[in-house]
Design brief:
Length: about 280
C-alpha cells in the first residue's frame, strides 16, 4: 500500500464530527506572525485560526518552523534572549503578547508536552502535584493527582507506586506522566511537540488514543513529522515548508496551506502540499 493510500485509509476510518471553523469561536488567531532570532527570520507571515476542542497538526519538513510557531502560542520563545515575535497572536480575542499579560499565567493556561519525556527527579505523586503546589492549589491534592493520572490514562498502572521515582517508569509512561502534570494545573490548551517521536508503536498508540479522549475537554495543537499520525489524530492540519537562503545556508518557514485534515491529505489545493503528503519531497 502506498503512503498516500495509507493516509487516505486512516482518514476514511476515522469517525469524527465535522469541523466548522467559520461557526466557532477561535482559541487562537494568528495574524501575519514572523519570528526572528537576532537578525534571522525563522518564520514569516503565518496566518491561521485555531478552533477549540479539536486537534490541530502542524506538519512539514525539518527546518520549516513548526516548533517555532508552536512555541509562540505559549510564549516559550520569550525564554530565548534573541527571539522576537512580530504580528499578532490573539488568545480568546486577547493579545497574547500585550505587555500587561503575564507569561507565567499564559503557560499555565497553555501547557506544553515536549518531544522527549522530561519528568522531574521526584516521585510520581510529586511530579503531578508540583504545578498545583507552585500556584497555590494545596487543597485536595490527593484527589487532584488521582484525577490527573486518570485523565492521562496512567492511574491504573501507577496507583500502587505513587511514591516511586518517576524515572522508574517506561518512556511511554513518563510521557503520560508529563501529560498528567500538564493537566493538573487545569490548562485550556495543550501543545505537543512531537510527543511520540521517542516512543515505540505501542506507547505511541496509547498517546494517540489519549489525545482523542482529551480533545473533549481541551484544545490540542501538535507538531509531528509523522504524516500518518497527523492523518489519524488531527481534525485540522497546517502544512509549512521552508524557503532556502542558499547564500546564508538558512531556512525561513512559511505556511503553505491550512484546512481540514481530510482536505489536506486527499485533495490539497497547493501542489507543494500534494507533493509533500504523497512523499515526492520532504
Amino acid at each position: 500500500m502506498s503512503l498516500h493510500s495509507s493516509l487516505e485509509m486512516h482518514i476514511a476510518t476515522r469517525q469524527q464530527e465535522p469541523v466548522s471553523p467559520d461557526t466557532r469561536d477561535f482559541v487562537f488567531q494568528i495574524d501575519g506572525v514572523s519570528v526572528f532570532y537576532g537578525g534571522f527570520r525563522a518564520v514569516r507571515d503565518i496566518t491561521m485560526d485555531i478552533v477549540p476542542q479539536r486537534i490541530t497538526a502542524l506538519i512539514g519538513p525539518s527546518g520549516c518552523g513548526k516548533t517555532t510557531v508552536l512555541r509562540c502560542l505559549n510564549r516559550m520563545n520569550d525564554l530565548i534572549e534573541t527571539a522576537r515575535v512580530e504580528g499578532r497572536i490573539s488568545y480568546h480575542g486577547e493579545d497574547l503578547y500585550d505587555k500587561q499579560v503575564d507569561p507565567v499565567e499564559v503557560r499555565r493556561r497553555i501547557g506544553m508536552v515536549f518531544q522527549k519525556p522530561n519528568p522531574f527527579p521526584k516521585s510520581i505523586y510529586d511530579n503531578v502535584a508540583f504545578g498545583p503546589k507552585i500556584i497555590g492549589m494545596k487543597d485536595d491534592l490527593d484527589e487532584l493527582v488521582e484525577r490527573s493520572l486518570q485523565n492521562a490514562a496512567l492511574w491504573d498502572e501507577v496507583k500502587d507506586r505513587l511514591k516511586d521515582s518517576a524515572m522508574s517508569l517506561s518512556g511511554g509512561q513518563q510521557q503520560r506522566l508529563c501529560i498528567a502534570r500538564c493537566l493538573a494545573v487545569s490548562p485550556d490548551v495543550i501543545l505537543m511537540d512531537e510527543p511520540c517521536s521517542a516512543l515505540d508503536p505501542i506507547a505511541t498508540g496509547r498517546i494517540e488514543d489519549l489525545m482523542q479522549t482529551l480533545k473533549d475537554q481541551y484544545t490540542i495543537v501538535i507538531v509531528t513529522h509523522n504524516m500518518q499520525q497527523a492523518a489519524r489524530v488531527s481534525d485540522m492540519t497546517a502544512f509549512l515548508t521552508a524557503e532556502i537562503h542558499e547564500e546564508q545556508d538558512r531556512r525561513t518557514g512559511i505556511l503553505v496551506e491550512y484546512d481540514r485534515t481530510e482536505q489536506i491529505f486527499t485533495n490539497p489545493t497547493d501542489e507543494r502540499t500534494e507533493n509533500y503528503v504523497t512523499g515526492r519531497f520532504g
